[in-house]
Structure formats: structure tokens, C-alpha cells
Amino acid sequence: KNPLSKRVKYVSIRLERTFTHNLRQREWKAAARRPGYARTLDRHDLHLSQLVLPNNSAWGGLTLAQLNFGQTDGVMIAAIVRGGNRVNIPDGNTMLFPQDTIEVIGDDDSLEALAKRMQAEIVTGNKRVLNHRLDIKHITIGSKSPFCEKTIFESGIREDYNCMVVGFEDEEEESNAINIAVANRRIVKGDTIWLVGEEKDLKQIKLANAGLSPTAKQV
User: Fold this and answer.
1) pTM score of the predicted model
2) What phi, psi does 30 have (nearest 5°)?
3) CA angle 160, 163, 166 (to 5 degrees)
4) Tens digit of pLDDT for each residue in 79-127?
5) Least confident interval from 14-18, 97-101, 133-137, 215-219
6) Cα–Cα distance between 94 and 88 in angstroms, integer?
């Protein structure tokens, strides 16, 4: 036989063995990174999957209670990894954010369906930007205003309406300068205050200031 063909065959076998060895090494390393309880779950037809929320995920900012994965997808969220922090056994009030790694327990079908749904439920284009654009408006405090004779802190403008008081217009200045607001500044009738917030929230404040909205927006 040709010695060269033997050498080629030997090299081919050696390369194949090296590839197989490296592949197994990667599999062993991946298995070593999995939590210890994942192997126990495997023996009971349940598995642990680690999913990373896309940057434009529609789940961002929602709580686990709102997403209700147990009822909707038949899976359980065992942990959330965010940067260098890990939250084990998160409760329903825990929010998800883009790039969170969630450790999910479920069977193969449920995990696969959840992964597909996660990739499908995203915010496309500029929809998120348009829906959450900030605006600036001013209102003049009237006698029926629920904010009258309250400090900024007491007014509930931030907590109830999700808006921020930027400042008070200085009526004595010809340039209508704005004095920066502080939490203990009292709002009185005739004050013109400047507010920053989303358009829908600013509209609610205008209605409330005119005495036309009996209740604050719940956020």
C-alpha cells in the first residue's frame, strides 16, 4: 500500500478524534455552567432553559404577575440574572427588562413555545419612542385646582400623574424666567407651573387643574 495514503488516513483519524474530544469538552463545560438542580429536573422530564430578553422585547417593564407565564405558557421562572445580580425565586412584583437572562423550568414543548413567543413579541419601529415621548407644558393654578395650597411634594403630581414640576414662571420678570422647583415650594392660586411628562398624563393634569377630573390617573 502507498505509505502516503496511510499517513493521510492517520491524520484524518487523529483530526476526527481531536474534533470529537473538543466537542465533548464544550458540552462538559456547558453542563458545568448549568445549575446543579437542572440535572435533577432532566430526570423528571422537566428542563431548565436560559433565555435572554431581546433589547426591543414587549415584555420589558412588565411584572411576572402581568406576564403570568405559569398560566399562559405552563412554565415557571426560577431566577432572573441582570448584570452581576441574580434574583432567585422572584415574586410576581418582579419586573423584567431587556437583556435579562431568565431561567425557566418546563417541559420541552412549553420551553420551545415560550422561546418562540419571546422572539415574536417585540416592539418594532419607533412605536415605543412615539408612545413614550416626553413633552413640556404649563398650567396656571386656578381656585378649583386640587394642587392649590399644597407643596409640590404634597400635590401628587409625580406619584399620581407621573409628571415632574420643572419650575414656576416668574411673573415679575419681563422675560418670564422660570424658577427651579423644590419639593417644599407651595403652589398657590395664580402660579404658572411648567411640567414635563407624557402627553396623556399632561392632559390629565390640565383637566384636574380645571376641576374637571375628580380622580388622578392611576399608574
Assistant:
1) 0.43
2) -65, -40
3) 135
4) 999 888 888 889 998 999 989 999 998 888 899 999 999 999 988 755 4
5) 215-219
6) 11
- Of the candidates 63, 143, 58, 207, the residue with the CA atom closest to the CA atom of residue 217: 207
How far lies 83's CA from each of 58, 79, 99, 119, 187, in Å? 20, 13, 9, 21, 42
Q: Would you state the cell numbers that stand for residue 66, as one nine-digit string? A: 402581568
Give CA separation, 8 vs 2, 17, 18, in Å.
10, 14, 15
Per residue in 59-70, pLDDT tens?
988 999 999 999
Cα 140 to Cα 121: distance, rounded to the nearest angstrom: 42
How many alpha carbons fall within 13 Å on the CB side of residue 12?
A: 6
Which stretches within the chain are classed as H helix? 3-33, 36-42, 64-67, 69-73, 108-120, 127-131, 152-155, 157-161, 199-209
